[in-house]
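Thread: "does anyone have the structure for this chain?"

Original post by V.I.:
We have the sequence but no experimental structure in hand. Need at least a predicted one for the grant figures.
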Amino acid sequence: MQLNKLSIVASTILLAHQAYAEDFVRVQYLQYNENDNRVDVIAPSLEVNKDFGTDYTLNVKLVGDTVSGASPTYIDTSSGASAYNRGVVSNPENINKQNIDFEEDRAFASVGLTTRFENRDELTLSYSKSYESDYDSNTFSLNYLMWVDESKNRSFDITTTYQDNTILIKECDPFNYACSKSDAISGASSEQDSSLGHVQLGLTQIIDESSLAKVSIFYATEEGYLSNQYYNIVRNGNIVEAEQKPDERSSYGFGLKYFKNFGDLTTKLGYGYYSDDWEMDAHTLTIDNYYEVNTALTLGFGLRYYTQSEAEFYSNNPNFFTTQTIASMDDKMSDFDAMTYKLSFAYIQNEKLSYDLGINYYDQSTDLSATYFSAGVKYKF
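Reply from O.Q.:
Generated one for you, C-alpha coordinates below.
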Protein backbone atom coordinates (compact mmCIF):
# COMPACT_ATOMS: atom_id res chain seq x y z
CA MET A 1 0.00 0.00 0.00
CA GLN A 2 1.74 3.13 -1.20
CA LEU A 3 2.45 5.77 1.43
CA ASN A 4 1.96 9.45 0.77
CA LYS A 5 4.25 10.51 -2.09
CA LEU A 6 4.38 14.14 -1.03
CA SER A 7 5.60 13.16 2.42
CA ILE A 8 8.64 11.57 0.79
CA VAL A 9 9.28 14.76 -1.17
CA ALA A 10 8.87 16.85 1.99
CA SER A 11 11.45 14.67 3.76
CA THR A 12 13.87 15.14 0.87
CA ILE A 13 13.40 18.91 0.85
CA LEU A 14 13.96 19.01 4.61
CA LEU A 15 17.17 17.05 4.18
CA ALA A 16 18.35 19.46 1.47
CA HIS A 17 17.77 22.51 3.70
CA GLN A 18 19.61 21.26 6.77
CA ALA A 19 23.06 22.79 7.11
CA TYR A 20 24.87 20.76 9.74
CA ALA A 21 28.00 21.82 11.59
CA GLU A 22 28.64 18.75 13.72
CA ASP A 23 29.27 15.03 13.59
CA PHE A 24 26.56 12.90 15.17
CA VAL A 25 24.64 9.65 15.20
CA ARG A 26 20.92 9.78 15.97
CA VAL A 27 18.68 6.80 16.71
CA GLN A 28 14.94 7.47 16.78
CA TYR A 29 11.75 5.50 17.28
CA LEU A 30 8.35 6.63 15.95
CA GLN A 31 4.97 5.07 16.71
CA TYR A 32 1.69 6.19 15.11
CA ASN A 33 -1.76 4.83 16.01
CA GLU A 34 -5.15 5.76 14.54
CA ASN A 35 -8.47 5.24 16.27
CA ASP A 36 -10.51 2.05 15.59
CA ASN A 37 -7.21 0.24 14.84
CA ARG A 38 -7.24 1.74 11.35
CA VAL A 39 -3.50 2.29 10.97
CA ASP A 40 -0.57 1.44 13.23
CA VAL A 41 2.97 2.41 12.26
CA ILE A 42 6.26 1.52 13.93
CA ALA A 43 9.28 3.25 12.40
CA PRO A 44 12.78 3.03 13.91
CA SER A 45 15.44 5.13 12.18
CA LEU A 46 19.17 5.71 12.16
CA GLU A 47 20.82 8.96 11.02
CA VAL A 48 24.54 9.66 10.64
CA ASN A 49 25.99 13.10 9.93
CA LYS A 50 29.67 13.66 9.20
CA ASP A 51 31.61 16.83 8.39
CA PHE A 52 34.70 16.52 6.20
CA GLY A 53 36.58 19.66 7.03
CA THR A 54 34.56 22.87 6.77
CA ASP A 55 33.48 22.45 3.14
CA TYR A 56 31.68 19.11 3.00
CA THR A 57 28.94 17.43 5.02
CA LEU A 58 27.52 13.97 4.43
CA ASN A 59 24.13 12.94 5.88
CA VAL A 60 22.73 9.40 5.70
CA LYS A 61 19.38 8.22 7.08
CA LEU A 62 17.78 4.78 7.21
CA VAL A 63 14.17 4.07 8.20
CA GLY A 64 12.27 0.79 8.48
CA ASP A 65 8.46 1.09 8.70
CA THR A 66 5.99 -1.58 9.70
CA VAL A 67 2.45 -0.50 8.79
CA SER A 68 -0.68 -2.46 9.68
CA GLY A 69 -4.34 -1.76 10.15
CA ALA A 70 -7.56 -1.53 8.18
CA SER A 71 -8.35 0.78 5.27
CA PRO A 72 -12.03 1.77 4.82
CA THR A 73 -13.45 1.25 1.31
CA TYR A 74 -16.69 0.13 -0.35
CA ILE A 75 -16.89 -3.58 -1.21
CA ASP A 76 -19.38 -6.31 -2.05
CA THR A 77 -19.66 -7.81 1.44
CA SER A 78 -21.42 -10.91 0.12
CA SER A 79 -18.08 -11.99 -1.39
CA GLY A 80 -16.00 -11.50 1.75
CA ALA A 81 -13.81 -8.69 3.05
CA SER A 82 -11.44 -7.87 0.18
CA ALA A 83 -10.74 -4.61 -1.62
CA TYR A 84 -10.93 -6.61 -4.86
CA ASN A 85 -14.59 -7.59 -4.40
CA ARG A 86 -15.72 -5.53 -7.39
CA GLY A 87 -18.36 -5.89 -10.09
CA VAL A 88 -22.10 -5.72 -10.62
CA VAL A 89 -23.93 -6.55 -7.39
CA SER A 90 -27.37 -8.15 -7.66
CA ASN A 91 -28.36 -6.93 -4.20
CA PRO A 92 -27.20 -3.32 -3.52
CA GLU A 93 -27.71 -3.94 0.19
CA ASN A 94 -24.55 -6.03 0.04
CA ILE A 95 -22.48 -2.94 -0.83
CA ASN A 96 -21.03 -1.51 2.36
CA LYS A 97 -18.09 0.55 3.50
CA GLN A 98 -15.85 -1.79 5.43
CA ASN A 99 -12.33 -1.82 6.81
CA ILE A 100 -9.95 -4.04 4.83
CA ASP A 101 -7.01 -5.40 6.81
CA PHE A 102 -3.53 -4.80 5.45
CA GLU A 103 0.07 -5.08 6.55
CA GLU A 104 3.09 -3.55 4.83
CA ASP A 105 6.80 -3.09 5.43
CA ARG A 106 8.65 -0.12 3.99
CA ALA A 107 12.38 0.54 3.72
CA PHE A 108 13.55 4.13 3.31
CA ALA A 109 17.07 5.41 2.78
CA SER A 110 18.42 8.87 2.00
CA VAL A 111 21.84 10.37 1.45
CA GLY A 112 22.75 14.03 1.11
CA LEU A 113 26.05 15.75 0.40
CA THR A 114 26.54 19.46 1.09
CA THR A 115 29.37 21.43 -0.52
CA ARG A 116 30.35 24.90 0.72
CA PHE A 117 32.11 27.30 -1.62
CA GLU A 118 34.66 29.99 -0.85
CA ASN A 119 31.91 32.59 -0.37
CA ARG A 120 30.13 30.03 1.91
CA ASP A 121 27.21 29.48 -0.45
CA GLU A 122 26.01 25.88 -0.16
CA LEU A 123 25.03 23.25 -2.72
CA THR A 124 23.28 20.11 -1.47
CA LEU A 125 22.64 17.04 -3.60
CA SER A 126 20.41 14.35 -2.12
CA TYR A 127 18.86 11.05 -3.13
CA SER A 128 16.27 8.93 -1.33
CA LYS A 129 14.64 5.59 -2.02
CA SER A 130 11.41 4.23 -0.54
CA TYR A 131 10.42 0.65 -1.20
CA GLU A 132 7.31 -1.38 -0.40
CA SER A 133 6.05 -4.65 -1.90
CA ASP A 134 3.79 -2.73 -4.30
CA TYR A 135 5.52 0.67 -4.45
CA ASP A 136 9.04 1.75 -5.42
CA SER A 137 10.02 5.42 -5.26
CA ASN A 138 13.26 7.21 -6.15
CA THR A 139 13.69 10.91 -5.35
CA PHE A 140 16.47 13.26 -6.46
CA SER A 141 16.88 16.76 -5.04
CA LEU A 142 19.19 19.73 -5.52
CA ASN A 143 19.31 22.74 -3.20
CA TYR A 144 21.36 25.90 -3.56
CA LEU A 145 21.70 28.36 -0.66
CA MET A 146 23.07 31.80 -1.57
CA TRP A 147 24.11 34.39 1.00
CA VAL A 148 23.24 37.90 -0.11
CA ASP A 149 25.50 39.90 2.20
CA GLU A 150 28.77 39.34 4.01
CA SER A 151 27.08 39.51 7.42
CA LYS A 152 24.98 36.43 6.50
CA ASN A 153 21.75 38.18 7.50
CA ARG A 154 19.89 37.36 4.29
CA SER A 155 19.85 34.30 2.08
CA PHE A 156 18.03 32.93 -0.93
CA ASP A 157 17.53 29.25 -1.58
CA ILE A 158 16.13 27.19 -4.42
CA THR A 159 15.24 23.51 -4.27
CA THR A 160 14.35 21.31 -7.22
CA THR A 161 13.06 17.80 -6.68
CA TYR A 162 12.16 14.99 -9.05
CA GLN A 163 10.47 11.77 -7.96
CA ASP A 164 9.91 8.63 -10.03
CA ASN A 165 7.47 5.98 -8.78
CA THR A 166 6.60 2.45 -9.84
CA ILE A 167 3.30 1.03 -8.57
CA LEU A 168 2.43 -2.67 -8.71
CA ILE A 169 -1.21 -3.04 -9.79
CA LYS A 170 -3.31 -6.21 -9.45
CA GLU A 171 -4.31 -7.43 -12.89
CA CYS A 172 -8.01 -7.49 -13.69
CA ASP A 173 -10.22 -10.07 -15.34
CA PRO A 174 -11.66 -9.48 -18.87
CA PHE A 175 -14.89 -7.99 -17.53
CA ASN A 176 -15.43 -4.26 -17.22
CA TYR A 177 -15.43 -3.99 -13.46
CA ALA A 178 -11.91 -4.83 -12.39
CA CYS A 179 -10.39 -7.51 -10.30
CA SER A 180 -11.99 -10.64 -8.97
CA LYS A 181 -11.07 -12.12 -5.63
CA SER A 182 -9.27 -15.02 -7.30
CA ASP A 183 -7.08 -12.63 -9.29
CA ALA A 184 -6.05 -10.86 -6.08
CA ILE A 185 -5.13 -14.15 -4.43
CA SER A 186 -3.17 -15.38 -7.45
CA GLY A 187 -0.83 -12.41 -7.23
CA ALA A 188 -1.14 -11.50 -10.91
CA SER A 189 -0.04 -7.92 -11.38
CA SER A 190 1.13 -5.23 -13.76
CA GLU A 191 3.15 -2.05 -13.32
CA GLN A 192 2.10 1.59 -13.50
CA ASP A 193 4.32 4.65 -13.25
CA SER A 194 4.00 8.14 -11.87
CA SER A 195 6.34 11.08 -11.49
CA LEU A 196 6.46 14.29 -9.50
CA GLY A 197 8.44 17.49 -10.04
CA HIS A 198 8.74 20.17 -7.35
CA VAL A 199 10.42 23.59 -7.30
CA GLN A 200 10.64 25.81 -4.23
CA LEU A 201 12.12 29.29 -3.78
CA GLY A 202 12.83 30.78 -0.37
CA LEU A 203 14.05 34.01 1.22
CA THR A 204 15.32 34.09 4.81
CA GLN A 205 15.94 37.40 6.60
CA ILE A 206 17.41 37.99 10.06
CA ILE A 207 15.40 40.93 11.36
CA ASP A 208 17.32 41.62 14.54
CA GLU A 209 19.28 39.76 17.20
CA SER A 210 16.16 37.93 18.42
CA SER A 211 14.01 37.33 15.33
CA LEU A 212 14.04 36.13 11.74
CA ALA A 213 11.48 35.47 9.01
CA LYS A 214 11.25 33.24 5.96
CA VAL A 215 8.95 33.29 2.95
CA SER A 216 8.80 30.54 0.33
CA ILE A 217 6.80 29.68 -2.78
CA PHE A 218 6.52 26.37 -4.61
CA TYR A 219 5.13 24.76 -7.74
CA ALA A 220 4.64 21.02 -8.27
CA THR A 221 3.35 18.80 -11.04
CA GLU A 222 2.43 15.11 -11.01
CA GLU A 223 1.51 12.76 -13.82
CA GLY A 224 0.87 9.05 -14.35
CA TYR A 225 -1.03 6.67 -12.09
CA LEU A 226 -2.23 8.87 -9.21
CA SER A 227 -5.07 6.63 -7.98
CA ASN A 228 -5.00 4.17 -5.09
CA GLN A 229 -5.52 0.61 -6.30
CA TYR A 230 -7.10 -0.41 -2.99
CA TYR A 231 -9.86 2.24 -3.01
CA ASN A 232 -13.24 1.64 -4.65
CA ILE A 233 -16.25 3.68 -5.71
CA VAL A 234 -19.92 2.74 -6.06
CA ARG A 235 -21.53 3.54 -9.42
CA ASN A 236 -25.29 3.57 -10.15
CA GLY A 237 -25.89 2.21 -6.66
CA ASN A 238 -25.07 -1.40 -7.64
CA ILE A 239 -21.58 -1.46 -9.18
CA VAL A 240 -18.32 -1.58 -7.21
CA GLU A 241 -15.21 -0.63 -9.16
CA ALA A 242 -11.75 0.83 -8.59
CA GLU A 243 -11.46 4.57 -8.12
CA GLN A 244 -9.93 6.64 -10.90
CA LYS A 245 -8.27 9.94 -10.12
CA PRO A 246 -6.94 12.23 -12.89
CA ASP A 247 -3.56 11.27 -14.35
CA GLU A 248 -2.22 14.82 -14.01
CA ARG A 249 -2.05 17.28 -11.14
CA SER A 250 -0.52 20.73 -10.78
CA SER A 251 -0.23 22.56 -7.48
CA TYR A 252 1.27 25.71 -6.06
CA GLY A 253 1.44 27.54 -2.76
CA PHE A 254 3.50 29.60 -0.38
CA GLY A 255 4.67 29.55 3.21
CA LEU A 256 5.46 32.18 5.84
CA LYS A 257 7.52 31.56 8.98
CA TYR A 258 8.50 33.89 11.80
CA PHE A 259 10.81 33.09 14.72
CA LYS A 260 11.07 35.24 17.83
CA ASN A 261 13.17 34.75 20.95
CA PHE A 262 11.95 36.13 24.29
CA GLY A 263 14.86 35.07 26.44
CA ASP A 264 14.04 31.59 27.73
CA LEU A 265 11.09 31.27 25.31
CA THR A 266 11.31 30.94 21.54
CA THR A 267 8.16 31.11 19.42
CA LYS A 268 7.74 29.97 15.84
CA LEU A 269 4.68 31.08 13.82
CA GLY A 270 3.80 29.65 10.43
CA TYR A 271 1.20 29.85 7.71
CA GLY A 272 0.98 27.75 4.55
CA TYR A 273 -1.32 27.90 1.53
CA TYR A 274 -1.84 25.14 -1.04
CA SER A 275 -3.95 24.99 -4.20
CA ASP A 276 -4.20 22.56 -7.13
CA ASP A 277 -6.17 21.97 -10.32
CA TRP A 278 -8.24 19.25 -8.63
CA GLU A 279 -9.98 22.24 -7.00
CA MET A 280 -8.45 21.50 -3.62
CA ASP A 281 -7.35 24.42 -1.45
CA ALA A 282 -5.68 24.07 1.94
CA HIS A 283 -4.57 26.40 4.74
CA THR A 284 -2.19 25.52 7.58
CA LEU A 285 -1.57 27.56 10.72
CA THR A 286 1.11 26.57 13.23
CA ILE A 287 2.47 27.89 16.50
CA ASP A 288 5.36 26.20 18.27
CA ASN A 289 6.91 27.32 21.53
CA TYR A 290 10.15 26.13 23.12
CA TYR A 291 10.85 27.00 26.73
CA GLU A 292 14.36 26.58 28.09
CA VAL A 293 13.87 25.40 31.67
CA ASN A 294 17.62 25.33 32.20
CA THR A 295 20.74 24.68 30.15
CA ALA A 296 19.87 20.98 29.96
CA LEU A 297 16.07 20.79 29.57
CA THR A 298 13.84 22.38 26.92
CA LEU A 299 10.07 21.93 26.76
CA GLY A 300 8.13 22.31 23.53
CA PHE A 301 4.40 22.83 23.05
CA GLY A 302 2.40 23.83 20.00
CA LEU A 303 -0.71 23.66 17.84
CA ARG A 304 -1.29 23.03 14.15
CA TYR A 305 -4.58 23.79 12.40
CA TYR A 306 -5.28 22.46 8.91
CA THR A 307 -8.30 22.83 6.64
CA GLN A 308 -8.92 21.78 3.04
CA SER A 309 -11.70 21.80 0.44
CA GLU A 310 -12.77 18.67 -1.43
CA ALA A 311 -11.64 17.59 -4.88
CA GLU A 312 -14.03 18.18 -7.76
CA PHE A 313 -14.36 14.43 -8.44
CA TYR A 314 -15.00 13.35 -4.81
CA SER A 315 -18.25 12.14 -3.24
CA ASN A 316 -19.08 9.98 -0.24
CA ASN A 317 -22.60 9.26 -1.51
CA PRO A 318 -22.91 5.69 -2.91
CA ASN A 319 -25.69 6.89 -5.24
CA PHE A 320 -23.80 9.88 -6.64
CA PHE A 321 -21.59 8.46 -9.41
CA THR A 322 -23.18 7.39 -12.70
CA THR A 323 -21.18 7.88 -15.91
CA GLN A 324 -18.27 9.94 -14.53
CA THR A 325 -14.92 8.57 -15.68
CA ILE A 326 -12.95 10.37 -12.96
CA ALA A 327 -14.37 9.46 -9.54
CA SER A 328 -13.11 8.89 -6.00
CA MET A 329 -14.56 8.16 -2.57
CA ASP A 330 -11.16 8.51 -0.88
CA ASP A 331 -11.68 10.43 2.39
CA LYS A 332 -8.38 12.25 1.85
CA MET A 333 -10.04 14.01 -1.11
CA SER A 334 -12.90 15.32 1.07
CA ASP A 335 -13.23 18.65 2.84
CA PHE A 336 -12.21 18.54 6.51
CA ASP A 337 -10.55 20.41 9.34
CA ALA A 338 -7.87 19.00 11.62
CA MET A 339 -6.08 20.07 14.78
CA THR A 340 -2.76 18.71 16.05
CA TYR A 341 -1.66 19.19 19.66
CA LYS A 342 2.10 18.87 20.21
CA LEU A 343 4.30 18.39 23.25
CA SER A 344 8.04 17.70 23.29
CA PHE A 345 10.98 17.34 25.67
CA ALA A 346 14.68 17.75 24.86
CA TYR A 347 17.39 16.92 27.40
CA ILE A 348 21.15 17.45 27.05
CA GLN A 349 23.04 15.08 29.33
CA ASN A 350 26.49 16.34 28.36
CA GLU A 351 28.30 17.84 25.37
CA LYS A 352 28.07 14.55 23.49
CA LEU A 353 24.78 12.91 24.53
CA SER A 354 21.22 14.25 24.29
CA TYR A 355 17.67 12.86 24.23
CA ASP A 356 14.32 13.95 22.81
CA LEU A 357 10.71 12.88 23.21
CA GLY A 358 7.64 14.08 21.30
CA ILE A 359 3.94 13.37 21.85
CA ASN A 360 1.22 14.45 19.40
CA TYR A 361 -2.54 14.08 19.15
CA TYR A 362 -4.33 14.56 15.81
CA ASP A 363 -8.07 15.19 15.62
CA GLN A 364 -9.86 15.43 12.26
CA SER A 365 -13.42 16.67 11.70
CA THR A 366 -14.27 13.32 10.12
CA ASP A 367 -14.13 10.19 12.26
CA LEU A 368 -10.33 10.09 12.24
CA SER A 369 -8.05 10.73 15.21
CA ALA A 370 -4.51 9.59 15.91
CA THR A 371 -1.75 9.69 18.48
CA TYR A 372 1.92 9.46 17.67
CA PHE A 373 5.10 9.83 19.64
CA SER A 374 8.80 9.76 18.95
CA ALA A 375 11.80 9.11 21.15
CA GLY A 376 15.41 9.58 20.17
CA VAL A 377 18.98 9.71 21.34
CA LYS A 378 21.76 11.72 19.69
CA TYR A 379 25.48 11.17 20.14
CA LYS A 380 28.04 13.71 18.93
CA PHE A 381 31.42 12.32 18.00
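V.I.: this helps a lot. The CA atoms of residues 39 and 69 lie 4 Å apart.
O.Q.: and Residues 5-17 form the longest helix (13 residues).
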